[in-house]
Specification:
265 residues, 7 strands, 37% helix, globular, disordered N terminus, Rossmann fold, alpha/beta
Length: 265
Amino acid sequence: MANLFIKQAKQYLGSRPNYPEELLQFIASKTPCHDLVWDVGTGSGQATVSLARIYKNVIATDTSAKQLELAPKLSNVQYKCTTPNMSMSELQQNVVAAESTVDLVTIAQAMHWFDLPSFYQQVKFVLKKPNGVIAAWCYKSPYVTKSVDSVFQRFYTVDSDPYWAPERKIVDDMYRTIEFPFEAVDGCDHNGPFEFKSERLIDLEGFFLYIKSWSAYQTAKENGVELLKDDVVEDFTNAWNEDGKYEKIITFPIYLRIGKVGNVN
């Protein structure tokens, strides 16, 4: 998984959505203490800045050293490059040494890549009992305008489809089907998905940069296929310019699964 994002790390940083304050505040409202977060699969730190404003300390881990190099450097954030199949001993040596010390585990647009049984064992080890919280979210394909969305939907479901890893289906299902063995947090009668949205102003080049940050785009390129071929670029350009606006608001729907660890035997 890490190799899929190494070559386009800068595109990823420059084009992926920032997460809305409403999302982070909702999560923070469910953790009784705000001392320590483990942000897993942090990438280039899309969620880190917001978490670091709310929590005293953040440990942010990823398997891609290249992505971590681009993450924002903050005084209360420790970045750690971990192996793809991190053992419990590596967890204790490089991330958190003691059991029941973490208030919150976050996973932004990454949990569909994980070996969940092993990961959940680690989550249940590090989280404070019984109210330590795990929050995992993903975002689906964005929408812009009716014309752009029409071109994009055809491009996503036909042109790019052969190059997505099977795990992408979990994202398309809004994490509804992902295994999530945690109790509902206080004030909620289920553990999601809960829907939020992220918006940003973007131009057409920025939109193409977002596409180029896809793992599917990199996979296609390695197979000698350019997904953004001339006719596709022309279709997007015509749709983009239809309303005469150079920049447009791009909206990413975000889906959150959240739960507390409870009393683990």
